[in-house]
Amino acid sequence: QVQLVESGGGLVQPGGSLRLSCTASGSIFSIHVMAWYRQAPGKQRELVATMSRDKTTNYSDSVKGRFTISRDNAKNKVYLQMNSLNAEDTAVYYCKIRAGSEDYWGQGTQVTVSS
Predict the structure, then answer these.
(1) How far is CA 29 from the centre of its chain?
(2) Cα separations (Å) of 37 from 27, 74, 93, 94, 96?
(3) Most buried among 15, 17, 25, 36, by the most CB within 10 A?
(4) Residues 58-102: pLDDT tens digits?
């Protein structure tokens, strides 16, 4: 059984920063890709950023240049540093990993950007 737990969400003013973290635990054979998604009410879940095991990254156009994904393979952790936040970044952020041939999702952490 694999469990993912996100943390670091909260309320932040426009222009501010937050750092999200996600820890994977349980029986994990091999984590290939770690990723962050987000979903706002009434909107589809969207990909934010991904990082492969060799630390190759991909970002959505909406966050490119503002967000940075990183991972600690030894600790099975993935982070999302979010800078220059704006109201459009408000969403529940979900951690996802691909381990072996399976995908696993966290329960999400709320990020609210408001003045």
Answers:
(1) 21
(2) 23, 22, 6, 5, 7
(3) 36
(4) 999 999 999 999 999 888 999 999 999 999 999 999 999 999 889
Least Cα distance to 48 among 33, 71, 24, 64 occurs for 64
CA distance 47 to 69: 12
Q: What is the pLDDT of residue 1?
A: 82
Q: In angstroms, rounded to a whole number, what is the distance separating the alpha carbons of residues 56 and 91?
A: 25
Segment 33-60, tens digit of pLDDT: 999 999 999 999 999 999 998 899 999 9
Measured CA to CA, the distance from residue 63 to residue 60 in angstroms comes to 6
User: What sign has the CA pseudo-torsion 41, 46, 97, 110?
Assistant: negative
Three-state secondary-structure class, residue 75: helix
Q: In what order do the strands lie in the sheet with 18-26?
A: 2-7, 18-26, 77-82, 67-72
